[in-house]
Amino acid sequence: MSGSTPALSLLAPAKLNLVLEVTGRRDDGFHDLDTVMTTIDLADRVRLRPAPPHHGGGTRRRAEGVGRAGGRTAPARRGRAAA
Known about the structure:
Layout: E1 8-25, E2 31-50, E3 61-67, E4 73-74
Antiparallel strand pairs: 1-2, 2-3, 3-4
């Protein structure tokens, strides 16, 4: 893609839940949580770049993540999930 906007590449640090307790359900369908967490020395690299014009006029973004553990490619997700 010559002449295109450069990709934005960031690290998304991992965390480890030491304690995770579901304490209730909210009216919006999400859950209340009590948690104790810590960071660990792992991260995903996330790369964002504008979509080509023929895919939504360039307004949609495509996320490409590669997990360091095992070299897995993480698919892009849209929206948020109610649990």
